[in-house]
């Protein structure tokens, strides 16, 4: 298949790596002898659950805001998100002295509203049933001259997210496989570019929830497929359609997309809790679940896994753990 035109290059990732250095954490790469025993593989977990604000999204947000002109920074930025992108933008804006407006639904969890405001962002509430958040953001952008920074479909966001895999390859060297979760595909496309640059023989798989396999369908149909909002506990991967910019990169550099059930995500959360003493949010468990519960032939292989985030409220976490079965 000929390469499709792409909006992001490895040079953009290397630039992003320099920009975020000293601002984003260089997150740890952890191993687990129990995970290795279970799979027969040598697994390297890149732990973005330990990233600032608890997920890889700080990387893309910081890189994107940094690229604005002085005048754009002066005016401020706007984003629409009820999840990790909101907190990432709020924190990155605070660090860079740029005012941040976030459009959030009226029924967003109180903890997320508080966290976003806590980082100093202005929160504008909209009604999910009757109003369109993109239209609200566009109107704010228009009226106040704000720059819109979307959660995944943006070259500087994609490049920023890809620095997580770049760091993984720098630390552990070549890998046979890399597994990355996907919602809109910002993280997956960035990491696939990093793999292509650092270890061209590494086979990259994306992983998404069984209930919301839009990227899998898109890849198999050869064009972007839209689905209704999927019912899954993986709230970071409830996107309805892969991005216009992320899709060509995924088509060029990702082997296939695998899917995982909510039950498997709960099992994986329990494994991380019991065996590795880590809190990982459901979406953050997708890639690891594919490796540890997917029955793939990984014996003797060197396998990278991106753990994307760790933001989950305590009451939901307790519920997920209660539903989980032990993996070993
Ligand atoms: C946003 C998010 C994802 C999905 O990222 P995309 O770039 O939209 O594919 C996965 N995990 C976590 C924890 C997230 O916050």
Automatic annotation (TrEMBL):
<dbReference type="InterPro" id="IPR001926">
    <property type="entry name" value="TrpB-like_PALP"/>
</dbReference>
<dbReference type="Pfam" id="PF00291">
    <property type="entry name" value="PALP"/>
</dbReference>
<dbReference type="GO" id="GO:0030170">
    <property type="term" value="F:pyridoxal phosphate binding"/>
</dbReference>
<dbReference type="GO" id="GO:0008721">
    <property type="term" value="F:D-serine ammonia-lyase activity"/>
</dbReference>
<dbReference type="GO" id="GO:0018114">
    <property type="term" value="F:threonine racemase activity"/>
</dbReference>
<comment type="function">
    <text>Catalyzes the anaerobic formation of alpha-ketobutyrate and ammonia from threonine in a two-step reaction. The first step involved a dehydration of threonine and a production of enamine intermediates (aminocrotonate), which tautomerizes to its imine form (iminobutyrate). Both intermediates are unstable and short-lived. The second step is the nonenzymatic hydrolysis of the enamine/imine intermediates to form 2-ketobutyrate and free ammonia. In the low water environment of the cell, the second step is accelerated by RidA.</text>
</comment>
<keyword id="KW-0456">Lyase</keyword>
<dbReference type="GO" id="GO:0000287">
    <property type="term" value="F:magnesium ion binding"/>
</dbReference>
<dbReference type="InterPro" id="IPR036052">
    <property type="entry name" value="TrpB-like_PALP_sf"/>
</dbReference>
<dbReference type="GO" id="GO:0005524">
    <property type="term" value="F:ATP binding"/>
</dbReference>
<keyword id="KW-0663">Pyridoxal phosphate</keyword>
<dbReference type="GO" id="GO:0003941">
    <property type="term" value="F:L-serine ammonia-lyase activity"/>
</dbReference>
<protein>
    <recommendedName>
        <fullName>L-threonine dehydratase catabolic TdcB</fullName>
        <ecNumber>4.3.1.17</ecNumber>
    </recommendedName>
</protein>
<comment type="subunit">
    <text>In the native structure, TdcB is in a dimeric form, whereas in the TdcB-AMP complex, it exists in a tetrameric form (dimer of dimers).</text>
</comment>
<comment type="similarity">
    <text>Belongs to the serine/threonine dehydratase family.</text>
</comment>
<feature type="domain" description="Tryptophan synthase beta chain-like PALP">
    <location>
        <begin position="21"/>
        <end position="309"/>
    </location>
</feature>
<dbReference type="GO" id="GO:0030378">
    <property type="term" value="F:serine racemase activity"/>
</dbReference>
<comment type="pathway">
    <text>Amino-acid degradation; L-threonine degradation via propanoate pathway; propanoate from L-threonine: step 1/4.</text>
</comment>
């Amino acid at each position: 298949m000929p390469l499709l035109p792409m909006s992001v290059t490895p040079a953009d990732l290397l630039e992003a790596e320099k920009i975020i250095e000293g601002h984003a954490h260089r997150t740890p790469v952890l191993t687990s002898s129990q995970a290795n025993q279970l799979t027969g593989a040598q697994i390297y977990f890149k732990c973005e659950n330990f990233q600032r604000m608890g997920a890889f999204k700080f990387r893309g947000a910081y890189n994107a805001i940094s690229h604005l002109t002085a005048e754009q920074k002066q005016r401020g930025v706007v984003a629409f998100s009820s999840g990790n992108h909101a907190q990432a933008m709020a924190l990155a804006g605070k660090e860079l002295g740029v005012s941040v407006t976030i459009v959030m639904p009226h029924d967003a969890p109180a903890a997320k509203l508080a966290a976003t405001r806590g980082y100093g962002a202005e929160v504008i509430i909209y009604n999910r049933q009757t109003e369109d958040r993109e239209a609200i953001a566009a109107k704010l952008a228009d009226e106040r001259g704000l720059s819109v920074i979307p959660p995944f479909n943006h070259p500087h966001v994609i490049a920023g997210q890809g620095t997580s895999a770049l760091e993984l390859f720098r630390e552990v060297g070549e890998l046979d496989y890399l597994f990355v979760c996907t919602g809109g595909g910002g993280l997956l496309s960035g990491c696939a570019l990093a793999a292509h640059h650092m270890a061209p023989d590494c086979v990259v798989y994306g992983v998404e929830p069984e209930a919301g396999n839009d990227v899998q369908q898109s890849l198999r149909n050869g064009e972007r497929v839209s689905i209704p909002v999927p019912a899954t506990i993986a709230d970071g991967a409830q996107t309805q359609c892969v991005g216009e910019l992320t899709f060509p990169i995924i088509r060029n550099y990702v082997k296939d997309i695998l899917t995982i059930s909510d039950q498997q995500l709960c099992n994986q959360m329990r494994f991380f809790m019991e065996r590795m003493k880590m809190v990982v949010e459901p979406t953050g468990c997708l890639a690891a679940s594919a490796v540890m519960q997917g029955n793939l032939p990984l014996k003797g292989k060197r396998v990278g896994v991106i753990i994307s985030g760790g933001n989950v409220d305590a009451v939901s976490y307790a519920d997920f753990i209660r539903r989980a079965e032990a993996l070993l």
